Amino acid sequence: MGVASPGGTESVMPPPMPPSPPPGPTSTARRAGEVAAWISAITGIFGLLLGFYGLPAVVNSPTAGNAAPTATVTATVQVTATVTAPAAAPPPADGAPSPSGGAPTTGGGQSRINLPMNHVLDLMSDPVAVAPAEGSGHRGISYDYSTSLYPRSAKIILLDSGQQGAEAVCKAETRYSNYLKSSDVVQGSQICVITDKGVVGLLTVRALPGAAGSVSNFYAFDVTVWRGV
Q1: Residues 133, 137, 141: CA angle, nearest 5 degrees
Q2: pLDDT above 90 covers what percent of the chain?
Q3: What CA–CA distance (Å, rounded) separates 140 from 125?
Q4: Beta-bridge partner residues of 158
Q5: How far apart are CA 44 and CA 39, in angstroms?
Q6: How far apart are CA 203 and CA 151, in angstroms?
Q7: Residues 226, 200: contact at Cβ < 8 Å?
Q8: Which of 55, 124, 140, 207 is found 20 to 30 A from 35 (Cα to Cα)?
Q9: Is 35 strand, coil or helix?
């Protein structure tokens, strides 16, 4: 665009200058931006690992820092028990057979009771006693005018040589005899006597009567008695 000059000539105005660009960021501002960019990148990587592996894997990884050590203590308790075994029962007196299935009462383990002719071995007595055969109320076994043994209000069983005399054995046997001759028994034979009152006796023969007129005209027994029912 022209402007008239005083001489009548038209002068031309110079075009306007474009605006200056804004000043660039300072070095401090650039450094702050770089730090922010690094922080943003690290945060993104941590978030990616957290989403992929989960929190325990990230926290417990070798780069997650040293965790506090955990100590496991195992305690062992030792218990000692003392068991006292019951005392063994003493053997029957004078070599009488050891009973099973019951214990003899006082007087039950008597040895070598002599039974003469016409007398009865009364198991109801405590201790066992020998009484005249003509009396009443006796329960056991009697030796009458012959050399035979007879039951008195009782049952008698001659055990076999291989049997072990005991209360349970006597109660289980049913081979009752009406009488036993001296020829039926020998020294060591065992005879069960079960009275009608439930008393059980085990007689072990120790001596036999001799021939007629012999001075040893008697039986001798070791006796074990069980009085329980």
Answers
A1: 50
A2: 34
A3: 10
A4: 191
A5: 9
A6: 13
A7: yes
A8: 55
A9: helix
